[in-house]
Amino acid sequence: MLSYRHSYHAGNHADVLKHIVLTLCIDALKAKEKPFLYLDTHAGAGRYILQGEYAEKTGEYLSGINLVWQRPDVPELLTGYLSLLKRYNPLETLKYYPGSPLIAKQLLREQDKLHLTELHPTDYPLLRQEFSKDKRATVLRADGFAQLKSKLPPASHRGIILIDPSYEMKDDYQKIPLALHEAHKRFATGTYLIWYPVVLRKQTQRMIDGIIKLGIRRISQFELALKPDNEQKGMTASGMIVINPPWKLHTQMQTILPWLKNVLDYEQTGHILNTELVPE
Ligand SMILES: C[S@@+](CC[C@H](N)C(=O)[O-])C[C@H]1O[C@@H](n2cnc3c(N)ncnc32)[C@H](O)[C@@H]1O
Q: Residue 144 has what DSSP assignment?
């Protein structure tokens, strides 16, 4: 019962926040020559056409990446993220948006590995095609949560794990703390990035409380809300929970989050969070 297609949402404000955090975390791991694993449990199709029938239908990218793309005053810290976008959009027009697997594909080095899983029958072949010539990558049509047991710890003992479900199935909220518990037992030093939407604040907060109760140390939260919380249908905010964040991330996000809010929150009704949920 997979009806969610990320192509309707690619490049929206949630993708922008998620992919900025991802880019900064990958860059931080590259400070050492030693190889690492990039594990993407819910990888999506990889590449999205913004001026196609899906993205045009919702127009979400217009109030997301499109606003960032047009700005002349982008902070230096975002040049890595934007130069990835420029590789897919060499002309001025924003036509393609790279999802998390393509971002990692561009940033990872020869010695690193990618392990990507996607369940959707249409998106999986698209993703596989993107990596057909990439020897560093394994692409599977498999359950992403199960990979956290079977693929961790990585042989390199270094890794970034992106957990980015669609929350189409409400049990994703419950599965995440359980999956993290298992993953962290196997690989305590990995950097885990968990994306979350805020549709109903209580539902999201229950999941975050569940993560905090695991007893894992060094957990951070980065959130961008474009509207106040409400009980109506629709996502008002999104965020990233990061376990074992790179040491510079909070400082970097102190510059990035206010700038993003200023660019994306044109009604000025949202908020940002840059919080250490659990210290060292
Ligand atoms: C939010 S999208 C992923 C977007 C992608 N990570 C990115 O940032 O570009 C979530 C994806 O998870 C897929 N999916 C849903 N349940 C899954 C599962 N149990 N295992 C793997 N993939 C799943 C959906 O088909 C969808 O493509």
A: H
DSSP bridge partners of 48 = 97
The CB of 151 under 6 Å from ligand 1? The reply is no
Q: Contact 115/141 with Cβ under 8 angstroms?
A: no
CA torsion sign, 32 to 191 to 188 to 217?
positive
pTM over 0.85: yes
Q: Collapsing DSSP states into helix, strand and coil, what is residue 169?
A: coil
Alpha helices (H) along 158-272: 172-186, 201-212, 249-264
Given a contact cutoff of 8 angstroms between Cβ atoms, the answer to whether 249 and 242 are in contact is yes
When comparing pLDDT for 58 and 35, which is higher?
35
Q: Kindly report, residue by residue over 111-135, the tens digit of the pLDDT.
A: 999 999 999 999 999 999 999 999 9
* Residues known to be catalytic: 164
Rounded to the nearest 10 degrees, how much is the dihedral formed by the CA atoms of 264, 268, 270, 271? 90
- Cis amide leading into 153 (omega within 30): yes
The residues, any chain, with a CB within 8 Å of residue 249's CB and separated by 6 or more, are 21, 24, 25, 28, 220, 242
User: Residue written as tokens 């982008």?
Assistant: 74
Ligand 1 centroid to Cα of residue 165, in Å, is 5
